[in-house]
Amino acid sequence: MPPSMKYPIQIDETDRRILRALQRDATLSQAALAEEVGSSAASCWRRVKALEEAGVLRATVRLVNPAAIARDVNVLCQVRLKSHSDENREAFERFVASREEIMECYSTSGDWDYELRVVVPDVAAYEHFLMRVLLHQPFIATAASRFALAQLKYQTALPV
Questions:
Q1: Are 141 and 78 contacting, i.e. CB atoms less than 8 angstroms apart?
Q2: What is the enclosing helix (H) or strand (E) of 24?
Q3: In 3D, which of 105, 85, 86 has the Cα closest to residue 95?
Q4: What average pLDDT does the chain have?
Q5: Is the pTM of this model over 0.70?
């Protein structure tokens, strides 16, 4: 953890209102944010900077509609490594970081080592990724895939 990140930091109700507002709309101006949370613009700016310094607030991004760019097929892929050596784990993590279609990766307990969320335009694209890319990695023993039929809930805002 970088030295500037000090978890957990003390967060008061004004900080919580700032976090909720920014998670809803990160494009708010400082003045609009201050008005929404009931604070002065200068105080709000200082609080946002402190939350950034502490590592509570991370990157500001815009969310893209997956259907609008034909990337709305979600596949949940469980992966088992051939061995749990440091070398294999590091190679797998480098592979995951290099693949844009892998949106999320979790190290998991149980029968599988990792769970991936892979986003592709269609089944053929996933078949190519699975058979010609993922399973060709020397550190991967096997994988199992499940296609998401519908997305019933998706949110990026954490409860604060």
A1: no
A2: helix 13-24
A3: 105
A4: 95
A5: yes
Look at residue 31 in the predicted model and tell me its pLDDT. Answer: 96
The single-letter DSSP state of residue 130 is: I
* Cβ density class 66-78: b for 16+ within 10 Å, e for less: beeeebebbbebb
CATH 3.40.1410.10 fits 66-147, yes or no: no
Give me the residue label for tokens 């592709």.
120
Determine the Cα angle at 69 with ends 64 and 74, to 5°: 80
What is the pLDDT, as a whole number, of residue 158? 96
Class of the CATH domain delimited by 1-63: mainly alpha
The CA–CA distances, whole Å, from 134 to 6, 87, 115, 146 equal 37, 17, 13, 15
3-state secondary structure of 60: coil
Contact at 8 Å (CB) between 102 and 116? yes
| Per-residue confidence (pLDDT) for residue 9, from 0 to 100 | 82
Tokens of 29: 């101006």
Query: Cα-Cα-Cα-Cα dihedral of 84, 88, 89, 94, to 10°?
Result: -170
Answer for the pair 156, 79: CB distance below 8 angstroms, yes or no: no
Structure token pair of residue 141: 């023993």
Listed by start position, the domains of the chain span 1-63, 66-147
Regions in the chain scoring below 70 on pLDDT: 1-7
